[in-house]
Amino acid sequence: MTWTDAQGISRQLYESGAARLRYVAGRSGTGRYQMPPGEPVWNTKDVRAYQVLGLWEVTWLEEGDTEHTGAWRIDGLTDRGRELLAEWERRVESGGGRRGPKRTSTPRKA
């Protein structure tokens, strides 16, 4: 699904990204060392990327970690993250699957 970030840049949200947003929406305080057994631990760079895109709030736990490479805790989705997840869910429910609703073709003018 294509969406536009705060800077006006067109981005793609894939099923894996929507799954992460859904996971965080259902649990507050998801942390690097708090992932349940069987869940893959997320890469710090991915957590940081979603924070930079404004999709969730992150607390960086290691003192002096100015590069944001250490332990983290996702405190929850931002308003934009909740809106994007809701839009994703609407598109899936409308029968479009992962890519959103199916588009109907319009006849070309002769």
Explain what you see.
Helix 1 (15-26) crosses helix 3 (79-96). The protein has helices spanning 15-26, 44-52, 79-96, and strands at residues 2-4, 10-12, 30-31, 56-60, 72-77. The longest helix has 18 residues, at 79-96. It has 110 residues and is α+β, with helices and mostly antiparallel strands. It has one domain (2-99): Arc Repressor Mutant, subunit A (Orthogonal Bundle). It has a three-stranded antiparallel β-sheet. Strands 1-2 form a two-stranded antiparallel sheet.
CATH topology name? Arc Repressor Mutant, subunit A
Distance between the termini: 31 Å
Please state roughly what percent of the residues sit in beta strands, choosing from under 5%, 5-15%, 15-25%, 25-35%, 35-45% or over 45%: 15-25%
| Helix/strand class | alpha+beta
The shape is globular
Into how many domains do the coordinates divide? Answer: 1
